[in-house]
Write a structure and sequence with these properties.
By secondary structure, this protein is mostly helical. The chain contains eight helices and six strands; from the N terminus they run ββαααααββααββα. The two termini are about 40 Å apart.
Length: about 325
């Protein structure tokens, strides 16, 4: 049975000469790269130019990191302030302590500002970013395995994760294996990302609705894993504060989906005027790679059809072949 346990990592830091290479930071960077790549690929399928998402990411990623750290500092301020604490550790994001709700909120704000700055329609960007967000989070959660910071209640079930004595929560020193919440969140977020892509093909939602649906799905998974965690946290009416935040996110996203029910995306991605900033315009003249579909085909508009590069008409039953 012990062979089924997930072992604790032998080390979380390597050294390249005097330079420390932290696994948590590598997972964080890997998640960002994966998320931006997936979003860029999806955006191209909406008819957008390849470089637009990367330009937006230069706004969204720094804002997201700042928001993630701010959320962690606010909700766990006792870890950074008070007797024996050094507030300088606030800037040490490579050691862990990033709040996903803060990252999503601030990152979304940064992306919206980037779209406003360049005149890019935000809805297709949001729709493309939805699966990228889910996949990026799934990869980033593996940083918690290396840092051994986030895990659930003691468990002897298969796939329980071994936690070294130095990283066990006070009061649980005599337990060796725990619920692998990072693994649960990774699997759930991958599922959410796949479902968002499937829903985009099947139900043809507007981009903002796809993003709202993604947030609702992510909130459900995070609410569940938060209920398993045993690390110290503030509680309100018997629930961790993070669970209340996830409940609010889900309620807001579900409410938005209800209020915008039936809405579908326009047949274009929009874009900045030529020469106005680094984000380039996206119009019908944007060249498409072989097999790509024109903008109307990812978020389909009833009655609109256009030929793909290979000559097919992306409507009806042929449409799904032209999507992601």
């Amino acid at each position: 049975m012990a062979a089924a346990f997930i072992p604790s990592p032998s080390r979380g830091t390597w050294h390249l000469g005097p330079l420390p290479i932290r696994a948590y930071a590598l997972c964080l960077v890997g998640g960002i790269i994966l998320g931006v790549w997936a979003a860029s690929r999806c955006y191209r399928r909406v008819g957008g130019r390849p470089g637009v998402i990367l330009d937006i990411a230069t706004w969204a990623v720094p804002c997201g990191l700042a928001g993630a750290r701010l959320y962690s500092v606010i909700t766990d301020y006792q870890l950074y302030f008070g007797a024996g604490r050094d507030w300088v550790t606030i800037v040490r994001i490579w050691d862990g302590g990033l709040g996903i709700p803060g990252a999503v909120a601030a990152g979304s704000l940064g992306a919206w500002l980037a779209c406003r700055h360049a005149g890019v329609s935000p809805a297709p960007v949001a729709g493309a970013a939805a699966p990228g967000l889910a996949f990026g989070l799934a990869a980033g959660y593996w940083g918690n395995w290396f840092s051994q910071q986030v895990y659930g209640r003691p468990s002897t079930m298969p796939l329980a994760v071994e936690i070294s004595p130095a990283h066990r929560v006070p009061g649980y020193e005599n337990y060796a294996t725990f619920q692998p919440t990072f693994l649960y969140e990774c699997g759930w977020d991958l599922l959410v990302g796949v479902l968002v892509i499937w829903a985009a093909r099947r139900f043809l939602p507007a981009g903002d609705r796809a993003f709202a649906g993604c947030l609702a799905g992510l909130a459900v998974g995070r609410y569940f894993t938060e209920s398993l965690r045993i690390d110290p946290a503030y509680h309100l009416l018997g629930l961790r504060v993070s669970q209340w935040v996830m409940a609010l996110v889900f309620t807001g996203a579900a409410g938005y989906l209800y209020l915008t029910r039936g809405k579908r995306a326009p047949d274009h991605t929009g874009g900045a005027a030529a020469g106005s900033g680094t984000l380039r315009p996206t119009s019908a003249a944007v060249p498409l790679a072989p097999g790509d579909c024109p903008p109307a085909q990812f978020f389909h508009v009833p009655g609109v059809s256009a030929p793909g590069m290979s000559g097919q008409i992306c409507t009806g039953s042929a449409q799904s072949a032209c999507n992601l």
